[in-house]
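Q: Structure tokens for this one, please.
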Amino acid sequence: MAEKKNIPTHIAFIMDGNGRWAQNKNLPKAKGHEEGARSVQTVVNAALKTGVKYITLYAFSTENWKRSKTEISALMKLLSKTLDKFIKEDDPKVKIIFSGRREPLPQDILAKMDKAAQIKKDNPALVLNLAINYGARQEITDAVNKLIDSGKKEITQQEISDALYNNLPEPDLIVRTSGEQRLSNFLLWQAAYSEFYFTPVLWPDFKEEHFIQAVEEYGRRQRRFGGR
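A: Here is the predicted structure, written as tokens:
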């Protein structure tokens, strides 16, 4: 394990590969999403063990609405089930917040998101940020429009940062599974100086050992922030 001082404060995950995992096993795509949901708990547990303070998960993008109605329905049912689990679990360690546009998410999903956030709001050890109906370009657009509506005529970078969906520390490390190497409209503003870690492991197969490998790789890197 990397030295404690080299543990990233905030890790963001692009959870890719659910469909390919299911296809490789001749299973319906919905089964891949179900298995992928199990990896969420794995990552949360690993973050608590290693001392990571913030986790952002790219759960559902604004582009995901382009998928088939069958797949979207399955994803919404899985999200509902996952939120029910968060609400029922008496875990005093994990605070849950959400990033993304609320419309056009179903009202029952929004109600469960609000309830989960309220129940977990005072939990201190780890902030779990679920990016649902999230797109980075949309987030930046919403932030700028918010500042314009407030009467701003000149806008600073700091003001844009403060107007984003959640005022979290920028991610130190962005992990993408399944071998793809792109951001896919995820945290474009916040990722300016993030480190990137790409792994061929499909998201449903992502285990604690893979989390630790990513953290250790981060610990070996020297971040310069453009200074030299």
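A few notes: The chain is about 45% helix and 15% strand. The mean pLDDT is 94.
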